[in-house]
Amino acid sequence: MNNFSYVRVASVEDAVQRAATDQAAMFIAGGTNLVDRMKVFLDQPSQLIDISRLELSRIEPTREGGLQIGALVTNTALADHPTVRRDYPILTRAILAGASQQIRNMATVGGNLMQRTRCPYYYDTVFACNKRQPGTDCAAVAGINRMHALFGASNHCIAVHPSDMCVALAALDAVVAVEGPQGKRQLPFVEFHRLPGETPQHDTNLEPGELITTVTLPPASFAKSGVYLKLRDRASYSFALVSVAAALALSDGQIREARLAMGGVAHKPWRSTGAEQFLIGKSAEEATFRQAAEVALEGAQPLPHNGYKVELTKRAVRRALTVSAKGGGIV
Ligand code: SF4
Fold first, then answer.
1. In CATH, which of 3.30.43.10, 3.40.50.1970, 3.20.20.370, 3.40.190.10 is domain 5-53?
2. For residue 98, which of 88, 112, 111 has the smallest C-alpha distance?
3. Domain boundary assignment for the chain
4. What was the pLDDT predicted at 241?
5. Residue 1 pLDDT > 70
6. Using one digit for the tens of pLDDT, what is the confidence trace for 167-213?
7. Which residues touch 61 (CB under 8 Å, ≥6 apart)?
8. What percent of the chain has a predicted confidence (pLDDT) above 90?
């Protein structure tokens, strides 16, 4: 590990100002991904700006009937919060599907959004990786790519985003508030992460020095039927091969509202608005869900080793929609 300086800040303004004046500085809170990356020299910050004592650990109702979540709320606190469990159970289920209890106790909401891919070639510095070192090539393209993307990849990077929480947040139309050298702004969740294109070293649309302060959930009557289905190589402490966040609101057996997002299939949580549009107004039955799964996987571009993900994701979508139509719950 290279030498770096460490400072604990007491205000968002101080954090932002320090990051703005030192482009090689990084924010640290729970550190559950960053410290791992530093140990293998993936990140070599000049300075760690410890934001863990900032007052960003509250979960509060909004005037509109939604919920505002501070960026430093831990995964455990968010998953266990009574309002989240009651009104946004899809979020609780997604969080509890990820990592281990010990990691969830340390990891924060903001950090979850900022975690980086677990592509094995990114972590192993023996291999070429455009995300780690732009312009060096992508070892996964000709390598073992069974874990990699179906949608939105480029020749420069075929990695997937690793988060479970973020898939649920995409389905819930969350909004991310950030503060930076140019002031405050808000990003719709689906615009927070980016596709790799020719610059896979950038995972998000954050500007230099910007800090996530809150994530806001709008009121969502459909969310109580939310389902999170994660399929993985082993039953716990494993990243998704594919995952699905689905929620339906029904009236007399007809689908009034639909949300569908998929994880493990792209460089960002992959919201399928096409499948959502297809579902609205249809009868909540197996044939509808089967067709919706086909729509959701339209445009998938499997790689040499991940063709299985196409059928696996279709089945996961059908299953998640079926359970949601029955009111949600554990899949
Ligand atoms: Fe690196 Fe992306 Fe290629 Fe993985 S898929 S080796 S992260 S460039």
1. 3.30.43.10
2. 112
3. 5-53, 223-325
4. 98
5. no
6. 999 999 999 999 999 999 999 999 999 999 999 999 999 999 999 99
7. 67, 68, 83
8. 96
Mean pLDDT across 99-120: 97
Cβ neighbour number for residue 154 with a 10 Å cutoff: 17
Q: Ligand 1 pocket: which of 129, 147, 148, 268 to mutate (most atoms <8 Å of CB)?
A: 129
Q: How far does the centroid of ligand 1 lie from the alpha carbon of residue 245, in Å?
A: 25
Q: Which fold has domain 223-325?
A: Enolase-like; domain 1 (3.30.390)
Atom of ligand 1 minimally distant from the CA of 129: 1
> What distance in angstroms lies between residue 38's CA and the mean position of ligand 1's atoms?
18
Give the helix ranges, DSSP H, for the chain.
Answer: 12-21, 34-39, 75-80, 82-87, 89-96, 101-106, 109-114, 120-123, 165-171, 273-279, 286-296, 308-325
Q: Which residues line ligand 1 (CB under 6 A)?
A: 117, 119, 121-122, 129-131, 138-140, 157-159, 200
